[in-house]
Structures are given as C-alpha cells and as structure tokens.
Amino acid sequence: MNGSIIFDPLVPWSVLLGISALAAAAVAIALWRGLSGWWLRALTALVLLAALANPSFQREDRAPLSDIVLIVVDDSASQKIGDRPTQTAEALAGVERELASLANVETRIVRVADGEGDKGTLLMNGLAQALAEEPRSRVAGAILITDGQVHDMSAAPQMPAPVHVLLTGHDRDWDRRLTIRNAPAFGILGEEVFLKLRVDDDGAVPEGVEPLAALSISVDGETPQVFPIPVGQDLELPVKLPHGGMNVLQFSIPSEEGELTDRNNAAVVQINGVRDRLRVLLVSGEPHAGERVWRNLLKSDASVDLVHFTILRPPEKQDGVPVTELSLIAFPTRELFVAKINEFDLIIFDRYRQRGILPNSYIENVRDYVRNGGTVLMAAGPEFGTADSLYRSPLADILPVVPSGRVIEEGFKPRLTDLGRRHPVTQGLDSFKPDEGGQEAASQPPAQAATQEGEPQWGRWFRQVDVEATGGQVVMEGAEGRPLLVLDRVDKGRVAVLASDHAWLWGRGYEGGGPQLELLRRLAHWMLKEPELEEELLSATAKGQTITITRHTIGDQPGPVTVTGPDGKQVDVTLTETAPGAYQADWLAPGLGLYRFVQGDLKTVIAVGPSAPREFERTIADGSILQPVVEPGRGGILRIEDGVPDIREVSASRAAAGRGWIGITPRGAYITQDVHVQPLLPAWAALLMAALLAVGAWMWEGRRSPTMRPD
Length: 711
What we know:
Helix content is 19%, strand content 35%. The protein is α/β, with parallel strands linked by helices and 711 residues long. The chain is elongated and about 155 Å long.
C-alpha cells in the first residue's frame, strides 16, 4: 500500500489563481494601511484558498509485477558449425537456471533463424520484435546467445536495460574463405571478361599453413583447372566465355586441416554470354519477290552486320554495256570467300546458281568453312534442280538433300513433320495464328490455330523444289509430302535447306499469312548455334529455391534427371511431358548452393542463391559487431567456453557486467489494484477556521485601534 498527497480543486486552477491574487492584494493593502490584524487576514485567505484547492490523501493498493529478461538465441546456419549447437544449448540451460534462482523474474526466449533470400542473421529484428511485445517498464535486460555475426545492426532497438552477449565458438578457431569481389553479369563471346576474387585467412591461423591456395575453376561443371594463388591479395582473373547463354563458373579452394568450415571455400558466378555483332553474308543469285525477306529479317536486328550482294546481271548476258557501268562496286569475291570467309557467322545462298562468278575453289572454301564450324543456309528456288545448281558444285558434299530436277508449282500448306513438332526450330510453330492483316499474333493453343482436320491455319505457298532427303532432319514438308525444310549437322558446322522461295507469301499476308518471322528467326538462331535451340538440351532455372528443370529432345522420352546437391547427395527427378519433345519438372531445392543435373550425356549446373551464403562469409565468432548495442547499458560480451556467467541484480547506475558475471536491472514495475482518496480538511472545518480567523482579526484590530475624539 502506498500513499500520496494530491490536489483536487473545487474550482478551475485559473480561477483559484485569480482568487489568490485578489487575496494577496487585500493583505498588501491591509499591511500598507497599518492594520494590526493583517496577518490574521492573511491566514484567513490561506485557509479559504486551501479549502478551494481541496488537498486529499490518496492511498493505492499495488501488486508488484515481475521483471522480464529477453533471451535471443541465434539459430542461423553459422551457429551449426562445429560444437556451437552444443554450446548454445548449454548456455541457454545455464541462463534459464540462473534466472530461475532470482525472485520475481520471468524469461522470454526468442529463436532467430536465417533471413529469407540470403539476408543473413537478423538478430536485431528478433530482439526488436521481442521488446515490442513486452512492456518496456518491465524489461530488466536482454541476453543474446550468438556467434556475433549479425547482419541487421541498423534495426537495433533502444534498450531500457542492459544487453549482454554470450559468444559461441573458441579462441583457437580459424577459417579460410573465398570471396568473389566483382563479377560482370554478361560478357561478349570471344572477348575476355575480368573477375576480381580474393582468398583470406581469418581467426587464429596456426603456424605452418601454406600462404598459397589451389584455386580450382570449372565452367558448366566440366573438368576443373587448378591454379596456385596467394592468400590475402586481390586477384583479377581474365575469363573467356565458351558459349552463348548462361555460363556457370565455379571457383573453389581445398579445405585445410583444422579449418572451421569449407562452406565458404567455393563460389559460383553466372555470366550471360552474348555475341557482340553477328556477321552474315547474304548472296542473292537474282532479284525475286522474296529477296527482301532475308534482308529485312537480318537488318531488323541491330546486332547483325549484314553483307548483301545480288547478282543483277549474269556474265553470259551480252548487251553491249561497258564493264565499268555494270555495278557501283566490284563483287569482292576473293576477299569474301578466301580472306574473310571465317569471319562470318552465317552464309546464306538465296536462289543462287553457278554462273562462273564463284569458281569451284571458292565453293570448296565454303564447304571447308562449314566443316570447321561455319553455317550455311540455302533458300532454294527453281534453279536448284538445274545443271548450274549449287548441288553440282563441291557444296554437294555437305548438303543433306538431292534435287530431282522437278519443280512443283501448285498450292500447298507447309506442315510440320512428327520430328518437326519436337524440334526446337519448328516446335509449336503451328500454334502461331496470324491476324487478319497477315501479321503474326501471339501463340495460341493448337486447337485454335488448326482446323478440325489438323491442317494449320496459315496461307498457302505455290512453289516447291522436289528434293530427296539423304540425311539430316526433315522438320517441314510441303506438296505431296515432299521435304520442305531440312536441317543437318556436318562435322562442326550446320547446314539448312529450305526447298521453296515462297516464304515471303506469309509476310505479305496472303490468305492470312503465317509465322514467317518466327520461322526464319528460329532458323537463323539455330544456324548460329544459340543454346536454347539445341535439339538435345537440358536446362534449369531457379526462382527462389524452386528449380524448373527442362529437357528438350527429338528422340524418345528421356529418363529421370539426376540432381546432385552442394552436399553431394543425389536424387532422381522424373520429368513430365508438357509439349511434343518438351519435358519439365519443378523441384524444390533443400538449401542454397550449386546443383548439378545429369541426364544421359547431357549435364548442366545452376546456383540457388550464392554457393557460399551470407551466413558463411565470415564464420569466426566475434562480438565487436554487437558492441554498439552492449555499451549503452554497460553490459558485457563473454565467451561461453569460459563458462556460463552468474546473473545478479544491479542498480541502473552501476556496471552491469564483470568477470564471470552479468547483471539485470530490477524495474520495480507494479499494477494498481485499488485507489482510496480522503480529503485532508473537511469543508465545515475550513469554513469554521476561516470564520474564527476573520472574527479574530476584527476583534484584534478593534482592541488595538486609538479612541476617536471630536475636533
């Protein structure tokens, strides 16, 4: 029970102050006039003012509240290294035991795991949240059980009581870590990109540890290359990307004896390989309605350098025109087909026929160019079946078709073959439905893009060169079921033959048009060996920890994909067919790191988050990061390996930590159960006292005043 004096005035305080001023003025006037009872008048005024102020005695019935101690336990990934889980459990049990021995103390235990999205240890968020759920007037202290590697110090709350840190780990701990300091998001194929990396030793590094680290570099999971690099120095590493698309580079160093963990001994960098400029040579044998199809397609891509020549006047034409007036520039055949042929990424022959302009030695250069990795696309017209066809040249050694000499001139709709429905160049092409103007619209479900008989809803072509496929892959057929588009691989290069020159009808919107741009774009990209258009492809993409595994094949249904995680564990994932030749599965990765996928001869890798998460960037236990939270309350940072400290109660003005002990500050919080208020001076008593004093003043002044005499 507690008591105090309170005032509950009968009139507002402003009125009471006004009355006080008037009373003081009256007493001053009485004193000035020399009235002997001025002091009695003053006492009368004071009694009346006190009665108006209504002083009261207030008694409270209070129930004391217990003090609360917050215990925040770090359960992040770095706390699972070595014997830290055991240290954490022992420290928590010891702290609970010590606090239980103190009277009127409660505990609140908060466990903090890794933050989502590799945010690291959010210990301060956990402390702030625990503090917000309790009355600040009852919080007597906070104890953090952690390795000190905290990543959200900006969220540290203002604590009303001491904060203490109990550190896991050992003084003798040391660790070697690999860090990628800078890496580009993309790189130009054929050009060097530079990565900056560093290897550091942290903690109590034992004597005799080699100051060199064996850096292993692997691209897309291939056999790694090993280079010795110094420890403690920045290293700028030049890298050439081997292919377009995503290149996954894995860097790792071997673990040393006694090292705390090897989780930070590897790092993964994903760099997208892009082509700087694609060089394309387009040779048109003669002007025709579809000649500009290829030119417009290639010129619409800003990344393509196009060299285009059209044979306007064949050599056999005799019309008397001077040679100097036949063209603006001479056809640089030797420069293009001898000196610079290997600089081109793609060569297109558009309705070209042999007229003596390109000798057989130049055609042989084109053949060898393909065998060594080049690509040739032949858009054939009626000339392909004649005596001066390119088939009658050394180029026949690499062509996958044989012309019969017949040209079919009748209306037909190109169709996808069974293989074409699975091949990435033509897969799903029949689901592109053109709009009324003949332009390609977005891909529609096949049921909307085809007639009831299964015939695509696109316009007809009216000419096709009859060829017999002797190799390669027939992905489209035309009139009479004859091969229309044939793709083939020759040694290191690629060849494609389009046995019609009427693709331009789709672009003009004839009978609704068709997916001309999409077909030619895919065809050109397949010729340029873009990874996403490979016939046999295994790829993986990650969104969060969900990995989407995709398998493209033109063969039979593939088997399961074997996934190897960063810990070496393997699991088989079965794929489901989502489209002809396309199989897919969503798989939830159990953790962050590098995952390898193998299916038959195909393999790929992908990194889920960083291979060395933020939790493992620094693993040596260190309390210096938490010093700004500990210092204001004069708390302490103690190592658990030295023993669980004693816990005492200390006043707020004293140090809250010492050798082998930490302190909490009792808050003395309470809850008021009842309140009793009793006036100190009853109204009748105040009135009686004021009346007696006033009468006394009158009588005193009457007795002390002189006798009045007339003049």
